[in-house]
Design goal:
Oligomer: single chain
Order of helices and strands: HHH
Structural class: mainly alpha
Distance between the termini: 27 Å
Number of helices: 3
Length: 71
């Protein structure tokens, strides 16, 4: 799990080039999009698993909001 963001950005850079400071913002956007998709999927198909993507989105939101407070 810890290697996925680096692998994603390496592949993204291979196609789009180096995005500099925008890389983390792009990764965060894709993570939000993926979490939203997973929330919808689990709600429709496995509601008992809904807590898993909700926890991921909550952790992401906490990190982003904490960074916004500091920045």
């Amino acid at each position: 799990r810890a290697r996925v963001p680096k692998a994603f950005l390496d592949a993204y850079r291979a196609v789009a080039g180096d995005c500099g400071e925008r890389e983390q913002a792009a990764l965060d956007l894709f993570l939000i999009e993926k979490a939203a998709y997973e929330i919808g999927y689990e709600a429709a198909n496995r509601p008992t698993w809904l807590r898993v993507p909700m926890a991921g989105l909550n952790a992401l939101a906490d990190r982003l909001l904490d960074g916004a407070k500091r920045g």
